[in-house]
Amino acid sequence: MCFRSPDRAGALAMARNLLRTCPLCEAVCGLEISIDPDDHVTSVRGDKADPFSNGFICPKGASLGHLDEDPDRLTEPMIRDRATGAWRTAGWAEAFELIAERFAAVVGEYGKQSAALYLGNPNAHTVAGALYVPVLARALGSRNIYSASTADQMPKQVASGLMFGDPLTVPVPDLDRTDYLLMLGANPLESNGSLCTAPDFPGRLKALQRRGGRFVVIDPRRTRTAKLADEHLFIRPGSDAYLLFGIVHTLFAEGLTDVRVEANGLDEVRAAAADFPPEAVAARTGIPAETVVRLARELAAAPTAAVYARIGTCTAEFGTLTQWLVDVLNVLTGNLDRPGGAMFATAATGGIARSKPFRVGRWTSRVRELPEAMGELPVGTLADEILTPGEGQVRALITVAGNPVLSAPSGARLDTACAELEFMISVDRYLNETTRHADVILPPPRTLQSPHYDFALLQFAVHNYARYSRPLIPLGDRPGESEILARLAAAVQGQPHSGTANPLAMVDELIIATTLQKAGLAQRRGELLGADSTEQRIDMMLRLGPYGEWAGGELNLQVLLDNPHGIDLGPLRPRLPGALRTESRRVELAPRELLDDVARLLARLADTAPDVVLIGRRQLRSNNSWMHNVATLVSGSNTCTLQINPADVDRLGLGGHAVVKSAAGTLTVPLEPTEAIMPGVVSLPHGWGHADSAQAVARAHAGVNANVLTDDSVLDVPSGNAVFNGVPVTLTPAPPPLRVFSPVVRAS
Ligand SMILES: Nc1nc2c(c(=O)[nH]1)N[C@H]1C(S)=C(S)[C@@H](COP(=O)(O)OP(=O)(O)OC[C@H]3O[C@@H](n4cnc5c(=O)[nH]c(N)nc54)[C@H](O)[C@@H]3O)O[C@H]1N2
Ligand SMILES: Nc1nc2c(c(=O)[nH]1)N[C@H]1C(S)=C(S)[C@@H](COP(=O)(O)OP(=O)(O)OC[C@H]3O[C@@H](n4cnc5c(=O)[nH]c(N)nc54)[C@H](O)[C@@H]3O)O[C@H]1N2
Ligand code: SF4
Ligand SMILES: [Mo]
């Protein structure tokens, strides 16, 4: 591969360009942003010269300017007076002083385990999240580390970790070459894709159909993606593992398996699948036996095929088993690691550092003894750890880019728990439902003042690609988010954090020195390029990566600076067995931890479905909880309604609103009757519930917190992941509530 590398010094000096990767979802679209002399965004367009996104943009990306300059966002540190509850702005030095003092007091009295960290979703999209959150986590020295991952994709990571030896070695459908795609619990026409980095996912699906391919969607709702599909099948929420086992069973029964990778455990999988014949899973899934058999035959017969499952199947009671069976199917049909099948990306910074095979449960949580996964405990037990007295009780919490009151199961309980903390710090751009409990809020700068590189998402890309964006607007005299996290890490350890101390440079220097030492390249420190120590770290990662200058290739930071639209690193390539980190260096088809959980699945095979179950959904113009303060995004259909089949409205005698009750809580919601959802299932989007928000637009479009209804006492067993789909609920008629959906006027 050959990259242009003209004038190094010249390109380094060109710090201000107008091209940037969109940080708002996993599609990593290239954007072309116009900024006026006062640093205001005047337009945002798709970058047509980006070789991966080719000019694609969605309504959220187009609103990046509004979001970036939201008048309600925080621009200075905020400190809350505990006695009066009043907020005031503060200087950075004062904020860090207070943090160092109060943190030392709590940890001094109760010990290190009394401090917890919660990391939200945007950390997957920021340089600060990728490079400095680990520094903060290490500084805390606590096992109470939580993140949105256990309300999201942890089942996929646990399944991949056990099968391939590394939880980041996750196969993605080779979208641009596959002939057949079986998609479960994903709606990329609204979400733009997840754990499958694919800008213009809709266009890629249409291209699949144009080249004669076929795609089938399994979803309890007829989504926009389902409407585009060649076939859509309704499925009872939470039952995907049964469907997939039925398909596995059929492949064995009909002699249709064609394993092409080195794998252990085939006999164990065959034995486990024996209990799940298509006839047995039909009642549980709502998918007829003959359809299960047909799906198996189609998958086996397709020249190439990929099975892909996402959030609808992860945030469910058998999330990990489902994710496992997805890749069991990819292996059994001969599609793992071959073009057109399910493949592993080769990310430019993504060298696999893991030397030991992945394990779960190296320690357990204090209260419920839930196993750790990837160094984290389930967010579904954070409230338990705060509310349950005893040694190791959580008394101090740091949240970074998260809103768990709206995003974690039993959100209302977590809301109560946060109010009990002795000290809380939030790094966040808003005063919101979670950060209102903080003592100190440290706001990141504008997005356009931050650099961008997708360390995580490019490991799941459907085409190998890299792009680096420098900040478009200078920081001025405020700290960037990387510096905030580095200073926070210093402050919580009682180290110098302000004044002349520069914890950011110190941290980077240490990481660079140890990494180069390990690689035997210590003497090449002087070669690292970059305007600051963060860029030097990125340069180092690129040089050491699979295309890197120090690994026989040509890639380094300069190449990316010279190619601001991004560079095409080619289609996905077979990576096995090299990418495997299992002890056996083979694919483990039947890890013990997963086979053990099959008993739980089997025990529930004959369960009768509850009368009504709740699932979630995503909306094109929302992003979890934090984009409801942009007027152009919350207009029209982007509202918090409960989708329900008209037959259920009649059957239950409902009117315009209903009282929805679960084991965890009760909500009153407006109904949106639609044939697009199967009978017996209702859907409420998450991320709403802003009635008391400090953000004016969001408050006027408040909606309700779906996670009042979800239940943190029920988690997926192997991964500890939250269960948002298939929650049993009852519905009764209700008059329209007064507060929901009408602007709330607040006395000031
Ligand atoms: N019922 C139900 N619940 C769900 C889900 C579901 O499908 N159904 N989905 C789950 C999933 S997949 C996820 S990922 C989680 C998300 O869970 P969270 O990550 O906890 O929630 P978000 O709403 O994404 O909150 C992001 C926060 O980051 C802040 N923020 C935005 N940009 C930045 C930045 O650059 N820096 C900093 N420091 N802060 C920033 C925002 O103001 C906001 O407070 O929700 C989960 N919850
Ligand atoms: N516009 C927009 N884009 C987003 C986000 C957003 O909030 N808005 N959030 C981002 C985040 S954090 C994530 S993780 C990704 C998620 O991206 P996706 O995984 O594509 O998420 P959804 O669009 O929620 O699609 C999940 C689908 O699962 C279905 N479903 C629910 N329960 C079940 C079940 O038991 N079985 C099956 N088979 N299907 C089920 C739902 O009806 C829904 O259509 O999206 C990201 N992109
Ligand atoms: S699809 Fe995602 S990455 Fe692309 S413009 Fe929209 S929000 Fe940004
Ligand atoms: Mo997510």
TrEMBL record:
InterPro entries according to UniProt: Asp_de-COase-like_dom_sf, MoPterin_dinucl-bd_dom, Mopterin_OxRdtase, Mopterin_OxRdtase_4Fe-4S_dom, Prok_molybdopt-oxidoreductase
GO molecular function annotation: 4 iron, 4 sulfur cluster binding; metal ion binding; molybdopterin cofactor binding; oxidoreductase activity
CC terms in the record's Gene Ontology section: membrane
Domain 4Fe-4S Mo/W bis-MGD-type: 15-72
Pfam families, per database record: Molybdop_Fe4S4, Molybdopterin, Molydop_binding
Keyword Ribosomal protein (UniProt): no
Alphabetical list of CDD domains matching this protein: MopB_1
Keywords, comma-separated and alphabetical: 4Fe-4S, Iron, Iron-sulfur, Metal-binding, Oxidoreductase
SMART domains: Molybdop_Fe4S4 (SM00926)
Protein name: Molybdopterin-dependent oxidoreductase
Organism: Nocardia arthritidis
Higher taxonomy: Bacteria, Bacillati, Actinomycetota, Actinomycetes, Mycobacteriales
